[in-house]
Design a protein that fits this description.
By secondary structure, the chain is α+β, with helices and mostly antiparallel strands. It has 2 domains: 26-62 and 140-236, Mannose-Binding Protein A, Chain A (Roll); 66-127, Seminal Fluid Protein  PDC-109 (Domain B) (Ribbon). The chain is built from 5 helices and 13 strands. A 4-stranded antiparallel beta sheet has the order 1-2-3-13, with no helix packed on it. The chain has a 4-stranded mixed beta sheet with strand order 4-6-7-9. The protein has a 3-stranded antiparallel beta sheet with strand order 10-11-12. The radius of gyration is 20 Å and the shape is globular. The protein starts with 25 loop residues before the first helix and ends with a strand.
């Protein structure tokens, strides 16, 4: 009989529950990975999860393209605009600048030299954005296939290997104490709704698994070509 050697242990995350309601429950033991801190804010618009070795876009509503023109609040996006390309101006990932009728979004925090050089070096990406700068606006939503395409085509924070997370990856972010299943310390603009995952619901392949970031539950009732939801791009490190 072959002997299987396990070279390393799988570390499951803590649930986030710190309140104990009876001895020996989850809040009593707080079992899970001892990695502290688990999440690292990389100060470039991304968050690294040291437990799963995944990197997440911190505020997808700042960098995911929206629609052109003026739209209702649900079609707008949070954005910060600058009016010049000054060489001494520090641009932060998510900043928006208009140039000759085109919009460009900053994808790597940097101090600009000349725009043409910065664009050639991948520090800016031309995109289509809403014309409104409404601070209460939310990110764009996508149908399932479009969400996958959007993540695959994303170039951000110096990386171009982003993808739409599967259902297990989304669930790995979940915490089970306090309002909201995703920690807003690291994902401050997360929308209280369901997010797409790349995982198909096997019983009905016209549907996909979504992750509800409020309740921390997975939902399989969404139809791929009919129900648009939010996206949270991820990459491996």
């Amino acid at each position: 009989m072959a002997v299987i050697t396990i070279s390393s242990k799988l570390q499951l995350p803590k649930t986030g529950q710190t309140t104990s309601y009876v001895d020996y429950d989850d809040g009593y033991y707080e079992k899970g990975s001892p990695i502290t801190p688990r999440f690292i804010d990389n100060s470039d618009g991304t968050v690294t999860d040291r437990l799963t070795n995944l990197m997440w876009v911190q505020c997808p509503d700042l960098i995911i393209p929206g629609e052109s023109g003026q739209h209702s609040i649900l079609k707008n996006q949070i954005q910060s605009a600058r009016g010049d390309w000054a060489g001494t101006t520090e641009y932060t990932a998510g900043d928006l600048v208009a140039e000759s009728g085109h919009y460009y979004v900053c994808v790597v925090t940097h101090t600009s030299g000349t725009f043409a050089t910065d664009l050639a070096n991948g520090k800016w990406v031309e995109t289509t954005w809403t014309s409104s700068v409404d601070p209460t606006a939310v990110a764009a939503t996508f149908l399932w296939a479009a969400g996958i395409t959007q993540c695959e085509g994303l170039s951000y924070a110096g990386y171009s290997d982003w993808y739409l997370p599967n259902v297990n990856q989304m669930v790995s972010l979940c915490k089970f104490e306090g309002y909201g299943a995703i920690d807003t310390t690291y994902f401050p603009t997360i929308v209280s709704d369901a997010y797409l995952t790349s995982t198909t619901y096997y019983i009905d392949t016209l549907r996909y698994w979504a992750f509800d970031v409020v309740t921390g539950v997975t939902v399989n009732g969404y139809i791929k070509d009919a129900n648009d939801k939010y996206i949270l791009p991820v990459r491996n490190i």
